[in-house]
Amino acid sequence: MQLVIVESPAKAKTIEKYLGGDYKVLASYGHIRDLPAKDGSVRPDEGFAMDWEVYTEKRNRDQVKAIADAAKKADRLILATDPDREGEAISWHLRELLAQKKALPKTVDRVTFNAITKQAVTEAMKAPRDLDTDLIDAYLARRALDYLFGFTLSPVLWRKLPGAKSAGRVQSVALRLIVDREREIEAFRPQEYWSVSALMEHDGTAFTARLVKFDGEKIERLTIAEEGTALRAKAAVEAGRFTVEEVDTKPLKRNPAPPFTTSTLQQEAARKLGYSASHTMQLAQSLYEAGAITYMRTDGVQMDAGAISACRKAIADRFDAHFLPDKPRFYASKAKNAQEAHEAIRPTDFARERAGSGDEAKLYDLIFKRAMASQMAGALLERTTVVMRDPTGRHELRATGQVVKFPGFMAVYQESFDQKGEDDEDGSLLPVMRQGDCPAKKAVNAEQHFTQPPPRFSEASLVKRLEELGIGRPSTYASTIQTLRDRAYVRMEKNRFFAEDSGRLLTAFLERFFPRYVAYDFTAGLEDELDEVSGGRAEWKKVLEAFWRDFKPSSDEVMERKPSEVTEALDEFLSDYLFPPQADGGDPRACPKCLAEGRAGGRLSLRGGRFGAFIACSNYPECAFRRKFGQPGDGDGADDESMGTDPETGLPVERKTGRFGPYVQLGEGKDAKRASIPKDIPDFDLEWALKLLSLPRIIGNHPETGEPIEANIGRYGPYLKHAGKYAKLAGTRDVFETGMNAAVTLLAEAANRGPGARGGTKAQPIKVLGAHPVSGGEMKVMPGRYGPYVTDGTTNATIPKDVKPEDLTEEQAVALITARTEAAPAKKGKRKATAKKPAATKPAAKKPATKKPVAKKKPAAKA
């Protein structure tokens, strides 16, 4: 028997179909072990020795045992995990663990395939290889680096920076990008500028022309800086008679983008479908395991020759010959390490236009169209520029237009971009004009504009920026971004990242005390060194030694500082942010409460508290003024944010932050209504605020009892309530979207979970059988927390997954209960029973115990 190990059950099930009866395929459920989450798991003083432990979850332990048992019976072990560094690491862990358990077959092979298709799998089985030690070394180095960074720095944060939760090698740099953008936005000062344009018409076609020259001076974007000049320019255009002087027509050719890599897939899925990076990768994983697409963690942009041929055939079948270029298109890989540069993400079968359902289907459609477009002919466009001048030649208008002559790949797919440039030309169609024509002026407009600050990062633009800087790797971006959100260092509003106070404070701490380790070039350089290791060009322990040599003394030096010293240093480092200059020229650190009450010497400074940093007065306790970190103002309420007005009541809706997190408030005073802001609503706006403030929501009256069913959010999350009984909802959106049918079903299911369910309703049997022949108890099939089971009132036995509970027969029930009785738990019960017998006779035999009180009384009498 040949044992094949892959990561997931879905992948195992698919592969088992392709292999013969001599193969058994098992899943490892991803990584089987990791470094224990405690100090000392990596020991630099012992040559970076590492301790590993199997994941403690029962599913993982049971699966490892199943793999070990099967390996003992196997003649050959085939490690068929994913074709990247993490896949290589999983295979290495499996081999090491089985060797420790003395369960390793004589023959151990490693096979990889880029797609889960019969052809790819069978061909891979014919070309086994050894484990790639370079990739394993790169994994060990990366894992040790992340562990040493986190487990060395996190204790420093906990002791010196109240409220900080953790720091990570890549996570901290990604957070710095978001915070730096926040600083750029705060430092930005908008500039006023004006534009003048004329709405014109020629041969019945309207078009717009911009003023590009005024009084002989060329107009750039910021040239017209105030309204007076704009109005004079407008008057000049209105008074002038503009004649076409130049008509310039240029052909343009636009070529398709290459097929998706991991990062470009995450970016386009965010722009076009609104998916988060983690959601995109989950969908792609499912499509890969179903055999619909190739491996989704890749830096490569090239398709293999067979796929290119299949793609070109699909294009020829769908379009005429003009859409298929004479030669296949080839794209250069941007991967920094050839060993980790796999084929681009593409469909496994170009004859398959659809795969999956729901979000999976949308993502597959995106992948399919991008891959097909990459092999299509370029689009042919024509751009026309028309220049018009008045008789003086001192004023000039320009109109631009664009027309698609041949769509080419654009018939299938067009790449999206985060922003359209402010100077992008108009792509509208222009009428045919010749030199000497005089188009009619319909209107002239002068519009005021202001320069805009750089936009906050979206997931797509953050992923793009991380990749541009060479920080992290695309396969890790989803988990990195999710960690920032889980730690509440950032929040999402309208699909944009906003830095929270805790994130700003952490970034300031790292920049002040660990500047090298949050520097973009240092982190990118470390990634290059890890790539050198995976390419076999560097030794992994030397990379760790170089890092640890400087990092450990830096962390020890900060650990020796007093918390007050750290706070003082941060107070000075963040002075410009925390205490910006006052409009009246006053002292930004002067305490407003002390000034108002006539106290002298009140100075504001940064303080650390149990719940994080805050700003307080030096005259404490005489002056109790305080405000939240990073919120300039007069103290209490300074961190409030107005969200708008309730259209029904006219009361203001404000976003606030309290001791237990962010919340929204409607109105003021004792009558104000409040609601906590859930973490699972990334795009929180006024509409969501009003929804939360409207709770509870009455879905309707229960069809059986006639009593109302209520949906609400409580201390333990969203729930349904009916007649004193409760049912849990999956998320906040379900509170507002669950209908009557779904609500009745959820309440019924909750009631059937047994005495543990809210309301104490006893679970109802799925099926009632006869009496057990030995115990005499009535046998029932019951629903359980971990699945259906059969019981005779004394012994519970789990029903196998391949047996439907309602189809269980009396004979099967007797066999299951008997087998369970004879198993280990029954023996433990016997041992307990025998242990109780001597305990029952001990009170009579313990006569010396009655003598002890008497012995104690004698000394008391002597005393």
TrEMBL record:
InterPro entries linked to this entry: Topo_IA, Topo_IA_2, Topo_IA_AS, Topo_IA_cen, Topo_IA_cen_sub1, Topo_IA_cen_sub2, Topo_IA_cen_sub3, Topo_IA_core_domain
Biased composition (Basic residues): 844-863
Residues covered by region (Disordered): 631-656, 819-863
Residues of the site described as Interaction with DNA: 31, 142-143, 146, 158, 297, 487
Keyword DNA-binding in record: yes
Residue segments, region Interaction with DNA: 166-171
Key words, A-Z: DNA-binding, Isomerase, Magnesium, Metal-binding, Topoisomerase, Zinc, Zinc-finger
SUPFAM superfamilies: Prokaryotic type I DNA topoisomerase, Zinc beta-ribbon
Stretches assigned to the Topo IA-type catalytic domain: 132-555
Alphabetical list of Pfam families matching this protein: Topoisom_bac, Toprim, Toprim_C_rpt, Zn_ribbon_Top1
Record note on quaternary structure: Monomer.
Protein name: DNA topoisomerase 1
